[in-house]
Amino acid sequence: MIAWLTEPFALEFMQRALVASLIVGVLCSVIGTFVVLRAMAFLGDALAHAILPGVAVAYLVGADLLLGALVAAVLVAVGIGAFSRRGGLREDTAIGILFAAALALGVLLMSTVRSYATDLTHILFGNVLGVSADDLWLTGILAVVVLTVLVLFFKEFQLASFDPVLAHVLNKRPETLRFAMLILLALTIVVGLQTVGVGLVAALLVTPAATAYLLTRRLASMMVVSAAVGVVSSVAGLYASYYLDVASGAAVVLVATAAFLVACVVAPRRGLLARRLRRRAA
Amino acid sequence: MSTLAPATAHLSLQDVTAGYDGRAALRAVTMSVPHGAQVAIVGPNGAGKSTLFKTLVGLLPVWSGRILLHGRPPGSQTDPIAYVPQREEIHWDFPVTVHDVVMMGRYGRLGWLRRPGAADREVVARCLHELGIAELEKRAIGELSGGQQQRVFLARALAQEPHVLLLDEPFTGVDVGAREALLALIGRLREQGITVLVSTHDMETAARRFELVALLNGRLVAYGEPSAVFTPDHLTEAFGGQALFLGGMVVIDQCCPGHVGDGEEHRHSHEPHARPR
């Protein structure tokens, strides 16, 4: 059993994959709590896709793909914030417009590329097994930055998410905090790209946090449970890809989905069983 | 709570005009509230009651005129005005406990990077006790009944240690017992020298239980003791055709959007899909 567990990580690229998976599992799941609570799931999805043109441009000019993704994500986050605030549009409308425009731009740019390189495919679909040491450093640094900001300003983010009116009354600048959250989300998505890819990073932002939401009654414990679900899913996905030879990103998301389904049924207060029992008792 | 302001302290509005979306909901209101007074704000729907409160706490800008607390603009002191909004404006399914919510009242006094300390926990414990919800402190906010939830938000407002407390429609959707408990609390706040402004549709409570009444209809129609405010002339001016005089009795036809009906305990579901925003 021990051998079965350790065998995959004898190889160096698998060790890097493990570290990358752990970082992404924790980061996406923790910031995902705010995505779920502030109903920003659509936003996460939009940001992930809006990164495409950044990647395409970086590829065309021969720059670092992750850097291109990072710039694009931050620009889109700022754009959504500015449109919905000054343009007087509802946030989901602003997101919808930018999402579509960025996606179209990405497709347009990529259609000029004759042959898709493996690098580009990796950004789109993720390949945790191809993570280089440099990528790992960038991932690690971004993760530390995002988590540190979240921890330092935990009480402000909690207040602004739960009750923006009180945040405003207490001079805690809910608008600035919302903006900061968009930027943190953009950074997180970029970090998640390599391991699970554009298509699945949104799932990793939502599913572990939604699972934790069902199981907890405080924001801090929701973050811890969410991170645990994210880590277990990421590692399980890695084993699945090693032993079953399936795509690791997809395996990660499916393990998280399984955890969510279990929580849906057995969660102590919000689960189906608990609600049925309560109804019977009532 | 502990902060007793000097006896000269008071809240004054001088010719205040404010509103939202380019529409003035409050026009040239001038009034002075003595320190520790208990004022009921009454008036028809759209009279500017909520606008008045939102302007006082700085959620809406003052278009012209000025607001002074203790002779200075509010905001230059540490959260001297606490505001309990109508219950629709809160995310009931958020994963926070009663203790967490009340602690948020302390955040205004805490810097951006400071964590709550022992003194803050002491204030929170005292406020929970004051509202009789100490035993609920570990419960999630979504698990509580409507009356309990209201007490949590009152406790949070008290945790701000305000000089002025603004309660927006606190009697709407609560039962008689909860209303009496709230009135008793307001009575205790008077002993602590906390000024309380309460907006309400409940004219009966306003007339019988408050020392001062402000009758609002965009502008301030009348302000003073209930007997001087609730005159047929003033009521007709404020409510127009909605006021009906039958012998010695006044009937006002003003039922209220989003009003579930007095006396009906109105519980909020805490199922995950029902997230009011």
How many extended strands of chain A? 0
Largest chain-chain contact?
A: A-B, 29 and 34 residues
Tally of individual domains of chain B:
1
CATH architecture of chain A: Orthogonal Bundle
Q: Percent helix among the residues of chain A? A: over 70%
- Described by the principal axes of the CA atoms, the overall outline of chain B is globular
CATH topology of chain B: Rossmann fold
Task: Please count the helical segments of chain B.
Answer: 8
Distance between the termini of chain A: 47 Å
By DSSP (H or I, 4+ residues per run), the number of helices of chain A equals: 14
Q: If you compute it from the alpha carbons, what radius of gyration of chain A comes out, rounded to the nearest whole angstrom?
A: 19 Å
Quote the beta fraction of chain A: under 5%
Low-confidence stretches of chain A: none
Query: What amount of the residues of chain B lies in strands?
Result: 25-35%
Salient structural properties:
heterodimer; A: 282 residues; mainly alpha; ABC transporter involved in vitamin B12 uptake, BtuC; globular; B: 277 residues; alpha/beta; Rossmann fold; six-stranded mixed sheet; three-stranded antiparallel sheet; disordered N terminus; disordered C terminus
